[in-house]
Amino acid sequence: MIAYINGLLTSIEEESIIVEVQGIGYEIFCANPFYFEPNMNKEVKIHTYHHVREDAQILFGFAKKEDKYLFSKLLNVSGIGPKGALAILAGVSVADFVGAIEREDDKYLTKFPGVGKKTARQMILDLKGKLVDWIPDEENEATIFYTEARADQSLVAEALEALEALGYSDKELQVIKPELHKVEADKVDDYVRHGLQLLLKA
Fold first, then answer.
1. pTM for this one?
2. What's the burial of 51, exposed, middle or buried (CB within 10 Å: 0-12/13-18/19+)?
3. pLDDT surpasses 70 at 128
4. Gyration radius of the chain's alpha carbons
5. 37: buried, middle or exposed (CB in 10 Å: 19+, 13-18, 0-12)?
6. Which end of the chain has fewer CB atoms at under 10 Å, N or C?
């Protein structure tokens, strides 16, 4: 089991980052790779979950231990795989998720991709009372930045849906997606406007 990796952040992709350690580049899949952008070409410590299956070995990475812990617990829930667990982590803080579990708020939980009412009830059944110790005591600067990065990711996703509704193809949108993640904006409309500018230049 690889618990964490210390190394040089050399690349940020759509779904992963590359961290180089003694000449070896480790591909690490993350909920929001662009969170690590300020550390590009710098030393980083990534908490990792080493997922092993018959046809592959995959590293999933997290900025904080509590995110890794939640990821590992979600994998134990029937109906949730690594992609589903990452999608949940991309859209919520650990504190908010644990709060929903403790309130038995299945309506909140079904907002995540691939989570229906049955899966939401299973999460509550399996996780209630088992995650409260992992809620951060206070929001420090890193936690706030991480939350903002997740919010930005959600706004980008909504903007891409709006652009698709305007008739742009998935192929065209995938080209501009990395650039949209670099934009600092507070509203979906701003991301849509910037996306249209990028598409017109393409």
1. 0.65
2. middle
3. yes
4. 18
5. middle
6. N
